[in-house]
Amino acid sequence: MLNFKNDYSEGACPEVLEALNKTNFEQTIGYGEDKYCEEAKILIRENINYQNADIYFLVGGTQTNTTVISHILKPYEAVIACKTGHISIHETGAIEATGHKIIEVNGIDGKLTADLILNELKKHEDHHMVKPKMVYISNTTEIGTVYSKEEIENISEVCKENDLYLFLDGARLASALASEKSDLNLEDYPKYCDIFYIGGTKNGLLFGEAVVIVKEELKKDFLFSIKQKGGLLAKGRLLGVQFLTLFKDDLYYRIGVHANQMAMKIKKAFIEKGIELATDSYTNQIFVNLSKDQIRELEKQVIFSVEFFGIGNDVSSRFVTSWATKEEDVDKFIEIIKNL
């Protein structure tokens, strides 16, 4: 069976496993206070070109989103997000469980806009309603689209003018950076975001997300929130070793490039077959509208997702590539698509 289910089915890219194996018998301080975590932080600060950032390593995306949002918001404050956003649709009410409302918005191609944010602010004008205090966006979005620099710049401006924090979910940031439709680089994110994270779980690591805190007032006591939410890993050096490896020799970017190239080959095959795209993705997730017969036929040879992703009112079929996707498997899949 060919597997295009997700971008975290495999373990980790060989460079990361080699680094973990090489350091396996070393004894280090726990809870992220080791030399590898410190070196990884230095390297990330260099890559984002922002030396004043506070950086913390957590294990997974839901844990990261929950920790960040619950740390920043007061009990009566809420976060604005797309209805397709990960915190809205795929985190089992984790944010609501911390006592914070998500103000869900019908985005445009999975993205928020400055106007959409302003429209929500008009609806929440006094103390009888929750107070919008944060804007949550993802790049890439959950439906494979990417923000342009102008779009994020406009959102950032609205946030600053209205005293809102801008939080960016970077679970698939490598794919966003490598997208042919993106004009953003890592150095841009500290300019526009108050806090964001660099995803590792879906970009070649065994596990791990690097939280980057830019705004000074959000930095205080973040470690307390990590610990309380169960995110302070005793073997923290495992995260440091992985991120230190990920940011050497452009590995992070190269992972994004490969995943996107494989996805674009699949996208082209669907287009040439005349199969409708559910979204116009230029990243490592391809969404298409297949008939029930086509789904049944494909499922005999290919593993993929068929579920409600918030695109329209029905399910979509999703095909995802990663650092580990082999081009020969993509070529085999293309032949299957041609014969649908």
Q: Structural class of the helices, strands and pairings?
A: alpha/beta
Strand content: 15-25%
Tell me about the largest β-sheet. 7 strands, mixed
- This entry's quaternary arrangement is single chain
Count of helical stretches: 14
Report the uncertain regions.
none
Mean pLDDT: 97
Rg value: 20 Å
Instruction: Give the CA-based shape.
Output: globular
**N-to-C CA distance:** 16 Å
Percent of residues in helices: 25-40%
Compute the number of strand runs.
12
Q: Enumerate the strands of the largest sheet in spatial order, edge to edge or round the barrel.
A: 2-8-7-6-5-3-4
Strand-and-helix sequence, N→C? EHHEHEHHEHEHEHHEEHHHEHEEEH
Summed up:
With 340 residues, this protein is an alpha/beta fold. Helices cover 40% and strands 16% of the residues. The mean pLDDT is 97.
Write the layout of secondary structure elements.
Layout: E1 2-3, H1 14-22, H2 35-48, E2 54-58, H3 61-72, E3 77-82, H4 86-89, H5 94-97, E4 102-105, H6 114-123, E5 131-138, H7 149-161, E6 165-169, H8 173-178, H9 189-192, E7 195-199, E8 209-213, H10 222-228, H11 237-246, H12 251-273, E9 285-288, H13 292-298, E10 302-303, E11 305-307, E12 316-320, H14 327-338
Parallel strand pairs: 1-10, 3-4, 3-5, 5-6, 6-7
Antiparallel strand pairs: 2-8, 7-8, 9-12, 11-12
Helix pairs in contact: 1-11, 2-11, 12-14
